[in-house]
Amino acid sequence: MKIAGTVAEVREQVKQWRKEGLTVGLVPTMGFLHEGHKSLIDRAVKENDRVVVSVFVNPTQFGPNEDFESYPRDMDKDSALCEAAGASLIFHPEPSEMYLDGYSTFVDMSTLTGGLCGKTRPIHFRGVCTVVSKLFNIVTPDRAYFGQKDAQQLAVIRHMVRDLNFGIEIVGCPIIREEDGLAKSSRNTYLNAEERAAATILSKALKEGKAALESGERDAAKVKQIVTDKINSEKLSKIDYVEIVDWNNLEPVEKVMDDVLCAVAVYIGKTRLIDNFIFSINS
Ligand code: AMP
User: Fold this and answer.
1) Residues 44 and 130 in one domain
2) Are the C-beta atoms of 148 and 126 separated by less than 8 Å?
3) Which residue among 40, 57, 72, 100 is least packed, with the fewest CB closer than 10 Å?
């Protein structure tokens, strides 16, 4: 497995693979890899001849008061995980390689990005769409893999690929959880022991919301209330949002008539965690 720091190296390697008629999968990440990321890499390895994992903490998707500087990084551990999972190449550029002096072009989506995480993180999806577009142009993969953990991001990327004719298949992958239900996240390392125990409230609350939908509740406000009450029962939690939106366009719904995304963002102490489930009306 190779580690490339420059765009030119990646292009050269992919050109070689293309000459050999090989397919290429891409797994974009910010590193500090865990089982959630590994599940994406595993799937990509199964479905493609070669897999590129990008490890890049993308400055343009962090707001001024967010955790860009303190975001955890461990390239040695990440390389070992990628190698063991069967990836062929890690793309690990410096910010200066991705954003040249005078960089001024951004991909800004006018729908899907205003609600949910976009409310508290107004520039986040502009940064995500920009960096993912750049990665798509650099790697030119056949398929790219994204976790449902970041459900809004998955919907936004699918929409962007459709709007901008990227011609890349976007594969959504299920949320990988700790044994007690907490969705795996690089940011879980910010939690102290007491907060770590409190953080299970997200998945517990979503479970109750899901159970209500499964037993026939169709009033979104009632389901949101069940989830909200449960989260508020944990004293270390502070809700950013609890939303039920149409899974196709991320617009809030009053009655659940179609597939919906039930998503939450909750501060546990200073750490903002997200989690969600998708409820399929026909299953
Ligand atoms: P990140 O490094 O947090 O930007 O995540 C990189 C990719 O891994 C994104 O597509 C995430 O949705 C995905 N991912 C992160 N955590 C999980 C998880 N617990 N289960 C499944 N996918 C995940």
Assistant:
1) yes
2) no
3) 100
Q: pLDDT, tens digit, for every residue of 23-49?
A: 999 999 999 999 999 999 999 999 999
Residue 265 domain flag: yes
Give residue 90's region: left, alpha or beta (phi > 0; psi -120 to 50).
beta
Range of the domain at 248: 186-277
152 CB within 6 A, ligand 1: no
Which residue is closest in CA terms to ligand 1's atom 12? 147
Q: Quick one: 202 and 255 in the same domain?
A: yes
Cβ within 8 Å of residue 66, ≥6 positions away:
121
CA distance 183 to 145: 18
Question: Has residue 174 got a pLDDT over 90?
Answer: yes
Give the HSE-up count for residue 89: Cα atoms under 13 Å, Cβ half-sphere: 24
Q: Are residues 169 and 198 in the same domain?
A: no
CATH no. for residue 268?
3.30.1300.10
Inside any domain, residue 236: yes
Give the Å distance between the CA of 217 and the centre of ligand 1. 30
Dihedral of CA atoms 48, 51, 57, 62 in degrees, nearest 10, equals: -10
Active site residue 34: no
180 falls within a domain = no
By most ligand atoms within 8 Å of CB, the mutation choice from 33, 34, 40 for ligand 1 is: 40
Q: What is the DSSP string of 35-101?
A: HHHHHHHHHHHHH-SEEEEEE---GGGS-TTSSTTTS---HHHHHHHHHHHT-SEEE---HHHHS-T
Contact in structure between 250 and 155 (CB atoms under 8 Å): yes
pLDDT of residue 57: 98
Phi, psi of 271 (to 5 degrees): -90, 125
